[in-house]
Amino acid sequence: MTISSNQRATVGSRIAPMCALAIVCCIFSTNHLRADELDDAKKAFASKNYSVAFPIFQKLANKGIAQAQAKLGEMYGAGFGVEENSCTAVKWYRAAAEQGNADGQYGIAVHYQYGTCLPWDNKLAYKWALAAAEQGHDDAQVIVGWCYENGMGVERNYDAAKQWYSKAAMQGNEEGQFNLAEMLMYGDQQGKNSDENEAIKLYTSSAEKGFANAQYALGNYYGIPGHKDVEKQLKWLTAAAQQGVRDAQTQLGWIYYTPQIGVQRDYELALKWYKAAALQSSPDAEWSLGNMFLDGAGVVKDYKMAAFWYSKAARHGHAGAQNYLGYLYQEGRGVAQNFVLSYIWYNIAAANADGLSISVTDDQEVLKKHRDDAADKLTKEQLSRAQEFATRCMKTKFKECEE
What we know:
- The chain is mainly alpha-helical.
- The protein contains 20 helices and no strands.
- The protein has helices at 5-46, 50-62, 66-78, 86-97, 102-114, 122-133, 138-150, 158-170, 174-186, 196-208, 212-221, 230-242, 246-257, 267-278, 283-295, 303-315, 319-331, 339-352, 364-375, 380-395.
């Protein structure tokens, strides 16, 4: 049978729409399957089932799906389910960012901000963060606010910083809330435009979400005369300390060690928190542990342990510890008696106390008297050598302090 040209045209006109419909259905079906896979991978990632999430993200990322590319960047950046690799993270973040994906843009901004794999560049950090922030990315809004607040990558502008922090804070971003609270608590560069009440609300909202810096800020606030609330002070300092905030740990140690109104002295807790802070090289905590062992307060008196902690604090620049280390060398308690080292540490303590805002319980004149008394025990040669060692010790930031 022969088909006429009119018949062929009629058949073609029927087939064409059918083919188009089939193509559309195929595309829709493919996109639907990809969306399902992406959702599955996101759910696995959220439940920390990285071994399931990774291959799906990788498959979709290789097909150009921006959300999957950004997630791969996050996994490589943090080492979730794969070996941490900042450069591979940047590769995938950039692939997503160039497609306009906000998570990818934010990831690139962070790597420029910290100089990981990419060169440290605040201008590019600002550029990429702004691109993501304008899409409503709350973490990127925090970076943009930080750039404006500190004049990093863009001209300093406190009003703009507040605006971007506010955008993030309104989305419940705890860091945005904290940063905005800081600006409102202390005002702008001239100390103006502060709002203490609003700052406390923001600190509290951030702290309740678990943001450690906000918890520490509230702990400090409730310890200030006029705002004193022992219960809230201990609550928030403990919350921050449990997250490893060194200064909160030191402060708790001091609260439990020193008699406080509304707080019973507790040497066990004082020792616990001082040790936690000392393990993070807190000079004040190391100094306080030295005091506890020197006095036998809550622990068995132990001059060797006192010398151990004073030595650590002394090398971290604590003038009080330097003074007591001089005393231990002078008396030969916990260390071998050594008048040269005694003078060295007395000398350093006296010099270190001049104009430094560090915790020093000894009057400056007393420190100088200790130094001068120690000098009287030395020959001219010993004194000259001790002065050289003291100078070297301070120049090397307390790293080379022995004979």
